[in-house]
Every structure is written in C-alpha cells, then in structure tokens.
Structure to design on (844 residues):
C-alpha cells in the first residue's frame, strides 16, 4: 500500500491509497487509468522527455481550443489524462532505470499499452518487477496480447474492431461494413483494462499476491458478440449470411418496426423501436395509422417482420415532415422507445439529462486554461469521482513526484534534469 | 473450473441481480470472476428468456441463447417481489448479499420498500448498483429505451454509417449500449468493494446508460468540446471534421480488410513498393512513387487528396488480387496496421484466438451436451476468469437457496409456489 502523500486527494476518494506507475497512452490505456485517477488513485504518468511524450500519438495533436499549438495543448490528450500526475524519464539512461525501480517499489500497479515487449527491453519484465516488489500488479493491454500468433501484429481501435467481428456486425444489407465510425474499442478496451486492474487490486488485498494480466484488446472485443457466437456454435447459423447484418433492424431479440428514420431538415434522423404489440398499437395511435392498427395480421410480431419495409415507408412519411426532437417527444409521450440521432452539439449543449448530470465538467489545465472534458456516468454516493484537474503538461509533476513521493532533494532533481535523466 | 485450486477474485462475494435486461452483462462479468451471483426472476421468468436466437431454433423458457450468454456463472431463483411475502424473502436474501445489481425501472424498488436506504438498514456494508437508461432521477428518467434508441440518442450512431448521407446513420451491432453501461457499473462496484475493503462501508451507485454512451464517442465529443467542430460519418472509418480517404478494401474471396493506415515510414513505403512490383501493380501508381506525407495529408489540399486517393485505389487493386486472410497476414508481416474484417464466428476458428483460449466449452448437463461460448475479456492468471456454470434454468436453484440457505421448510416453499410468489 502506498503511503498517502498527496494532499490533493479528497478524504472520500475510494482509491486514495492506490498508486499506479503508468505508462499507458492513446485511449485504450490512458482511458483506464483516467477512471482510476478520477476515483482518487495517484496515477503517475511517465513520459519520454526526448520524444516529448509522443509515444502517445495524442501528445501534441489536436483538436485545439485556439490558435496555439504545442506539445501541452492537445485537446484529446487533455481529455484522456485528467487527474493524473505527469513525470518524465529517459529510459535509455541507467539512472532512469534506477528511478523507475524505486517508483515501482512504492507502487501498487504498473500499467501500459505499448506494443509487445517494450518494458521487457528496458529490463522491466514482470519477472524483474517482482524482484523489486513481489506483489506488484502488472496489467498490459496490447492489441493482440503478449501471447499468440498475432502478438507481434500492430493494431489500433479500428483493427481491433475489424478482427474481432464488431465492424462486421455494423452495417446495412448489401453494403460494405459500416464499422463504428470511431474507436469504440479504445474506450471499451480502457474500461475492460480498468476492470482488470481493479479486480487484481481487490484480489491482492485478499490473497496477498500480485500478478501479470496480459490483456488482448481483441479478445475483449470478441467477447462482446456473445449471442451471435452462440447462434453459430449451437445452431450453426453464421452472422455471415445473405441479408446480414442489417444492424438498424433487430434480430436478437426480434422487434418490428425497428429503424432509423429520416426527419425534416438535412441529415436529421430519429430511431424508433416497437418492443411488442403494445408499443405497436401506441405507435399507430401517435402516427394516426388507423388502418394498420386495425390490421389483425400486424398485431403479431411475425406479421410486422414480414411487412417491415412497408411499415418503414409509412413511418418515414410521418417522420420526414417532423423535427427529430418533435418526433421523439410525440412517441415518448405515449411510452414508445424513440431517440433522436443527436449531434454532438445537441447532446452536449442542449440535453437536459447530460446537463443535470454535469456530464461534461470543466477542468483547469495549467496551460490550456479551462476546458470541458468527458465526465463520469456513474455516481458513487460515498466516494464520488472527481474530475477537476486537466492533464499534466510534459514533466509538470517532476518535483512533486521525485521530491514528494520519492524523497529526492532539490539538488538531486536539478542534476537529473541537467543530465537529461528526467 | 479454475486452475491450481486458487481462489477466484470474487469468491465468497454474494451478488443479487434483479430487474430488467440492462444488468445481465454486469452480473455475468462478476459471476465469471467467481462471485456467487443469484439472478432473481419473476415467477414467469426474465423477459430475455423470450429473446432469439433459440436452441435448435425452437422457443422455450430455457432455450434462449441470448439468455444463455448473458447469464453464465449465475444461479437462478424465482420470486415475485411485487407481493409482500416475496419482498420479505428478498430482504432475507439481501441480508446475506454483498452487492445488489438493480436494473428495475428507476424508483421501482424504492416504491416497493426495497430501496437502498431500507436494505442498508439490515446490510450496512451493502453495495447497490442501479443501472438505468437515464439515471435514477431527473430529465428523461421515465423515458422508454432500447439498445437502438439509446445508441441514437446517446451519440454513437451520429458517427456511424456511410459516406452517402442519404442513407441513415447506422447502429453498431450486438446490444453494445447495455454492455457499455455495465462496464461502468462493474468499475463502480469494484471501486466500491475496494473502498469497503479499506473502510467496511457500503454505498449506492447510480449508473446512467445515456451518460455512459455520451462519454463513449471519442472524437465526436472532444472535437465539439474543444474546438466547436462537428464530425461527419464516413464509410468504414472514423467520422471526422475533414474527409479522409476510404481504407476498406474488398478482397478476392468477398471479404474485407481495413487498410486505413498506410505506410508510416519510408521503410514501410519501400516494402509496399516492392510488394506492388511483385503483384504487377507498380505502374498503376503513375507519378506517385513517393508516399503521401502526414503533413500533406493534414494540409488536405487538392494535390494531397489526389495523391491519397491514387494510393488508396492501387491498394484496393492489391486487395482484389488475394484473399483477405493472406492480405492481412502479409501486410502485418511488413508492419502495416491492417486488419481482416471477420464475422463474429470467424474468430473461433482463428489460430490466434484458439492459442489464447478464447473459445471455451460449457457443459449443459440437462441437454447432455456442451457448447462453445465466447471467452474471457481479460484473465487473471492467479485468479482465473471462468464460466463456472451454464445459465440457470427457470427457478433451478429455488430449493438450494430457499431451503438450503434461508432454511425454509418444504411446506413453506410449497405454499409460496402455490401462491405463485416463487
């Protein structure tokens, strides 16, 4: 257990006794330790001074909040690294290795999402780390993991999604895969990594042992397709079949009508789903479909599935004369599931739910100033998350960590800076 | 099923899962890590028991593969908590529980006198996670929701679809909205359990699916928050503010490969030229015998875009000459971050996933058969992930739990059954 050193942690932070020696970057790694930091873990993010931390592609990349550019001003990096401390080390130097060893000796977990083998090349394989701290937890999150025929392969979010089956499952019939339109698995890989770290911490507190968790982000992604996999292994029904996928429709479970329909204006849409006959009757009432409501063959799901195209055309004739929010409100007033396809500005600026939740809090970044970031979608009554401090600038907390945590005096720190170690 | 006689992470942790379909993945993630999860269903069975696909395509209360997948490693009891006798039994069950996963409609358990405050009176260390579409209170908390409407309203759908915006945006497949909020719920539960290890105190967790999706949209949110820009969807690649070249290619065997990241280094470009030479495609590059630089791509002027388009079109010719698997492996051997677009079932036959033990066999003793399930999203070598048992049959553990653990007499149980409370 790390000694409590930082005065920044509120007394009610659940993870305030946890220290993470953090080499993660991008989102699949940084997104994991971001959540631990928000719940009070002291996350010490280690970056390479020579490469200016750019082993993380977001270090020094946009979007930018104004005309300023630079290594400390990227919006994505800030978003993914709130509430962390940032230090620099040049791992090519033996002195840096000694410092890292000291840091590991007072840490609870070491985290990274490099390609396979980086830590090992520096001399910090799991075996070596256990010599420094026998119960250390090491969690690596690599695209294909450290074990297996593809472990040397290179990935990023879209490749993880492609190989796992997630990309395939998203699309319209007779069209190429649509994919997710973003790195869904960088977010989710980070969530799964955070869960793995928390599980390993919980286990260590009970059983007294650390361990190496070799995560493969692609395993995590493939695990998100469970019912489709069972349909194949149990019934022999593959997802790769004519007419499949048609992911705006619903087959697991079957629902009809079910789709995304055009609304008034340019590129405006509303999603509508009838879960059962009751929803269908209400939908007919809202849209004034007296003829369809009276059609006994449509009362049952089978009939609606058979005539889905025809029903879709009727629904779209109704939605395309209405604003997307109006269509949603009219259906929701009767209890029919409907959701406008919100643009980012809709859900961030004009959405009463995200506003009431304070979902996009403003953090204070030492160079960028005040910036809004992603918040926390779970509220813990006794140990709430805190997202107030922006991402560290390069080496921002060298003094605080090397001095405050590791007890170096200011002269030692100064000479380490001069020698280019930190 | 876990190896070496070691304790699994959550061994001895009792979880009660109650409510709707939103919490099932949360319960599975805890159960597969060793928690004793008891799923409390109404006497008629959980709604998802009626979800397709079905074992041998025949509906039946114990035949839903959807239910099978999301309820592994759980025990199952039936109980009507709408009635007083049922509520008393539920409170008894909670007394022996560490965690309650509640995905009933917001306010429902409170209205039944089974809210957190009430339950915590007899179980002070209780961790109760309530999972709902819009949070427990506030705007939209009474709105109807499905996976489709949640993903549309919460943000992911805006980024997903095709270059042709006359087509609707697309929902990513596989009920991912439920899984996203459950990942946050598990992070919250594990954080709360670690806090309880330190302090003995329990707490209440409010998990908001709409909020969870809002913070799982990557660039769409950050571009708006930081720069006030709106991303636009594109076929099979990241939605973005400035359009990018299509990187998804159709191979000879009708399968696709994501080749979105081209040569990043001069060395890779030389490899690629040699490969194109070998395939007789080098002439098709015309004048573009150098690689498009990152700077030129970022500049995005007409010449840079033409260059990028040309290279992308030759890459598509390359893809068309070979099978997807061959293209994927050859490209990766040259260091390119390309990925085959697999269907979910394809991973089961893939040597990499097999080497990592991803497909797992689960016994169904009642059917005298075993089936292959999706495996571990992460595995802790000293506290193994495992599917400890297949999903429970309806009421399978009534006797074991009510008689064996709560000490009810056979007469009492018979009475509860005759009253349809169990």
């Amino acid at each position: 257990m790390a000694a409590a050193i930082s005065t920044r942690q509120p007394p009610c932070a659940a993870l305030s006794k946890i220290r993470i020696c953090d080499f993660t970057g991008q989102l699949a790694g940084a997104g994991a330790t971001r959540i631990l930091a928000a719940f009070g873990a002291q996350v010490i993010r280690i970056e390479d001074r020579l490469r200016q931390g750019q082993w993380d592609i977001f270090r020094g990349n946009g979007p930018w909040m104004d005309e300023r550019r630079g290594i400390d001003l990227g919006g994505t990096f800030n978003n993914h690294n709130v509430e962390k401390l940032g230090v620099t080390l040049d791992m090519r130097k033996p002195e840096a290795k000694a410092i890292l060893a000291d840091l590991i000796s007072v840490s609870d977990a070491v985290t990274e999402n490099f390609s396979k083998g980086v830590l090992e090349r520096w001399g910090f394989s799991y075996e070596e780390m256990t010599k420094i701290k026998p119960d250390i937890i090491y969690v690596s999150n690599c695209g294909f993991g450290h074990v297996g025929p593809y472990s040397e392969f290179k990935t990023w979010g879209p490749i993880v999604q492609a190989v796992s089956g997630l990309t395939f499952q998203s699309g319209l019939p007779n069209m190429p895969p649509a994919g997710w339109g973003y790195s869904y698995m960088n977010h989710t890989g980070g969530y799964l990594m955070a869960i793995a770290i928390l599980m390993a911490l919980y286990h260590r507190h009970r059983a007294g042992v650390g361990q190496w968790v070799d995560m493969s982000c692609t395993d995590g992604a493939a695990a998100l397709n469970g019912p489709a996999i069972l349909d194949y292994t149990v019934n022999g029904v593959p997802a790769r079949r004519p007419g499949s996928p048609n992911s705006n429709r619903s087959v697991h479970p079957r629902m009809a009508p079910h789709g995304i329909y055009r609304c008034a204006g340019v590129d405006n849409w509303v999603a509508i789903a009838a879960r059962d006959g009751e929803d269908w009757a209400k939908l007919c009432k809202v849209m004034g479909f007296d003829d369809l409501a009276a059609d006994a063959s449509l009362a049952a799901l089978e009939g609606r599935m058979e005539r889905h195209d025809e029903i879709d055309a009727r629904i779209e004739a109704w939605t395309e004369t209405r604003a997307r929010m109006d269509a949603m409100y009219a259906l929701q007033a009767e209890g029919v599931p409907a959701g406008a396809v919100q643009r980012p500005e809709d859900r961030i600026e004009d959405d009463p739910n995200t506003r009431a939740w304070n979902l996009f809090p403003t953090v204070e970044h030492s160079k960028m100033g005040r910036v809004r970031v992603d918040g926390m979608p779970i509220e813990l009554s006794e140990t709430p998350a805190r997202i107030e401090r922006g991402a560290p600038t390069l080496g921002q907390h060298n003094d605080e960590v090397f001095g405050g945590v590791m007890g170096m005096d200011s002269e030692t720190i100064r000479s380490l800076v001069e020698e280019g170690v930190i | 099923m876990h190896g070496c006689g070691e304790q699994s992470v959550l061994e001895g942790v009792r979880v009660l899962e109650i409510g709707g379909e939103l919490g099932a993945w949360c319960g599975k993630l805890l159960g597969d890590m060793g928690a004793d999860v008891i799923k409390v269903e109404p006497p008629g069975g959980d709604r998802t028991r009626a979800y397709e696909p079905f074992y041998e395509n025949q509906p039946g209360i114990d035949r839903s593969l959807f239910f099978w997948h999301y309820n592994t490693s759980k025990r199952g009891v039936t109980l009507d908590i709408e009635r007083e006798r049922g509520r008393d039994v539920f409170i008894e069950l909670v007394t022996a529980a560490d965690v309650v996963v509640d995905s009933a409609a917001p306010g429902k358990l409170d209205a039944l006198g089974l809210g957190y405050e009430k339950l915590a009176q007899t179980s002070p260390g209780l961790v109760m996670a309530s999972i709902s579409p819009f949070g427990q209170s506030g705007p939209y908390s009474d709105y109807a929701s499905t996976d489709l409407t949640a993903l549309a309203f919460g943000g992911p759908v805006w980024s997903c679809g095709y270059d042709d915006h006359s087509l609707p945006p697309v929902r990513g497949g596989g009920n991912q909205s439920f899984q996203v909020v459950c990942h946050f719920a598990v992070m919250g539960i594990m954080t709360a359990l670690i806090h309880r290890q330190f302090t003995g105190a329990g707490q209440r967790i409010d998990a908001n699916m709409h909020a969870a999706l809002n913070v799982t949209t990557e660039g769409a949110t950050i571009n708006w928050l930081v720069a006030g820009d709106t991303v636009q969807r594109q076929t099979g690649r990241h939605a973005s503010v400035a359009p990018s070249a299509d990187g998804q290619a159709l191979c000879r065997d009708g399968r696709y490969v994501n080749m979105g990241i081209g040569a990043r280094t001069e060395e890779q470009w030389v490899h690629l030229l040699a490969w194109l030479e070998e395939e007789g495609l080098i002439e098709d590059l015309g004048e573009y015998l150098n690689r498009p630089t990152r700077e030129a791509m970022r500049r995005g002027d007409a010449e840079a875009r033409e260059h990028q388009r040309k290279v992308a079109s030759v890459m598509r010719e390359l893809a068309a000459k070979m099978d997807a698997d061959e293209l994927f492996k050859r490209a990766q051997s040259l260091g390119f971050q390309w990925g085959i677009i697999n269907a979910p079932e394809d991973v089961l036959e893939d040597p990499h996933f097999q080497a990592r033990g991803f497909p797992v066999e689960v016994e169904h003793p009642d059917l005298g058969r075993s089936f292959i399930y999706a495996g571990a999203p992460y595995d802790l070598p000293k506290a193994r992930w495992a599917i400890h048992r297949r999903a429970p049959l309806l009421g399978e553990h009534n006797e074991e739990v009510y008689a064996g653990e709560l000490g009810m007499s056979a007469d009492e149980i018979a009475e509860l059954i005759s009253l349809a409370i169990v």
Observations:
- Residues 176-199 of chain B form the longest helix (24 residues).
